[in-house]
Write a structure and sequence with these properties.
261 residues, alpha/beta, 8 helices, 31% helix
Amino acid sequence: MEIIILIKHVPDTGSILSIDSNKKSISEDNIKWIMNPYDEIALEEGLRIKDSQGGKITLLCVGNDKSVDILRKGLAMGADDAVLIHDDEIDLNNSLAIAKLISVKIKSHSFDLIISGQCAVDDGYGLVGPAVAVFLSIPHISFVEHVNISSNKLVCRQTMDIGAVTCETSFPALITAQRGLNEPRYPSMMGIMKAKKKEIEKKTLSDIGISWDQISNDKSKALITSMRLPTSQRTIKIIDGTSNDKKVKNLVNCLLNDRIL
């Protein structure tokens, strides 16, 4: 089975972020970059499918130099190949155009299954995976929490507001990985050593045979007009009472009427 995993580099969720002087982006000084956690889940699921079905896993990332170490980690985990699309013309904030670019690149590959994270933890859009499926005219199942392959059919359980739904589709298809689908493995020392020797295939827009203007326009992206850190407002309220019962009643009254939570 030919599996493509969509990968993105994001700031480490433990990093202390600050706003850049332009007020439209975060400052990248002293930030540690990691593989998007949902993409890590996607990769782990691809590796499990490969273990049971056989085949090959290719990592595909639209990024920059910061993406190289992330792709190395994916190779160390067990992926077979890695492709990085890097071009100065690419606007990494334009998710719809990124999806178009990925779909153009994937059309030159044979594949059975594409797996991406449900969203990236930096922007939370959750747009790229489903949009790639639309541009490739293949079925997709989002928010997947369980995967089973039987009789050349893909059967997934997805989470929804009303509960869980079981969906079935044929290949090729795309799914987006939800937290709880699996627990990603740690790269082994042998995997890390092998990954250092593997070549990451790097492509520019001209290599793919497309220009950024062909896939991007002002209507295809959300414009960031300003950015600020959330304000923190912490208050402390002492619950008084002459007895424990009285204190509980006063606490409940505060929760219901004072809206301190």
